[in-house]
Amino acid sequence: xxxxxxxxxxxxxxxxxxxxxxxxxxxxxxxxxxxxxxxxxxxxxxxxxxxxxxxxxxxxxxxxxxxxxxxxxxxxxxxxxxxxxxxxxxxxxxxxxxxxxxxxxxxxxxxxxxxxxxxxxxxxxxxxxxxxxxxxxxxxxxxxxxxxxxxxxxxxxxxxxxxxxxxxxxxxxxxxxx
Amino acid sequence: xxxxxxxxxxxxxxxxxxxxxxxxxxxxxxxxxxxxxxxxxxxxxxxxxxx
Lengths: 178, 51
Prior knowledge:
The complex is a heterodimer of chains A (about 180) and B (about 50). Chain A is α+β, with helices and mostly antiparallel strands. Chain A has helices at about 25-40, 70-80, 110-125, 140-145, 170-175; strands at about 5-10, 45-50, 55-65, 85-100, 130-135, 150, 160-165.
């Protein structure tokens, strides 16, 4: 990997060749990320060399909402009092997509970029952000667990993608906020 | 077209309880010196590559 750089992609930015072995993730990078950028839905960052994309990640604003009721109770109450807020909300950033090129997998690049994201949202955050959430592909769950992520719910345990989260607070206490 | 990014669900019942408990634990959770060193190193490394 010679002279890599991290590039925030505009809708019209050139997407250099990328293959992580998953068509959905490749397709998102080459196509959907343009439209998402245009509509201000996600921001995609590409970690690139001169000729190719080594990895990319797409992030968006998110929040984690927790209710002190069960889903059933929540529905019942909502019918009676429709507009009252009945949950706590915690600000978060969501990693919508995160992938490393096949040629660069298993070399620590994923953890390196994940540490960068953690540091970025602790040290250089422009708004409040306590958690990183992720829409994790089943094949990547071990990677996220290794990087300190937990499952948000058991309701998606049989799905091919699971919702996970990382709490930035413990890390923020030791690395500091700039 | 790639599949859409799933929304983060609202947590109810046991999921919400588990999450609250975890947040509380994290208020005093210690991060190992090795993890701290690695995150700072990687953050500063990639920061240098930002275009």
